[in-house]
Amino acid sequence: MSRGGSNRLLTPEEVAAWLKVSEITVKNKYRTWGLRPQKVGRLLRFRERDIVAYLDDNYG
């Protein structure tokens, strides 16, 4: 069972707005943050539940 959030896919732009950082920061740091992207063609997408888990683990 996953913790909080949904399976909704977010664009790097949406993640950046949520975390209040730039889109470039998300694209450069997602590996460091331990976020696993979902590739849709050549585009990066992130599951909402993964972002929620990251925030809970690091800033909870």
Describe the structure in your own words.
It is a single chain. With 60 residues, the protein is α+β, with helices and mostly antiparallel strands. The protein has three helices and three strands, in the order βααββα. A three-stranded antiparallel beta sheet has the order 1-3-2. The longest helix has 12 residues, at 48-59. The two termini are 19 Å apart. The model has no long low-confidence stretch (mean pLDDT 91). This is Helix-turn-helix domain-containing protein. Residues 9-58 form the Helix-turn-helix domain.
Structural class: alpha+beta
The unreliable regions are: none
Order of adjacent strands in the largest pleated sheet = 1-3-2
Overall radius of gyration:
11 Å
Distance between the termini: 19 Å
**SSE ordering:** EHHEEH
Biggest β-sheet, characterized? 3 strands, antiparallel
Shape descriptor reads globular
What is the residue-averaged pLDDT?
91
Fraction in beta strands: 15-25%
Extended strand count: 3
Share of helix, binned: 40-55%
Question: Helical stretch count?
Answer: 3
Protein name: Helix-turn-helix domain-containing protein
InterPro entries: DNA-bd_dom_put_sf, HTH_17
Please write out the topology.
Blueprint: E1 9-10, H1 12-19, H2 23-29, E2 37-40, E3 43-47, H3 48-59
Antiparallel strand pairs: 1-3, 2-3
Helix pairs in contact: 1-2
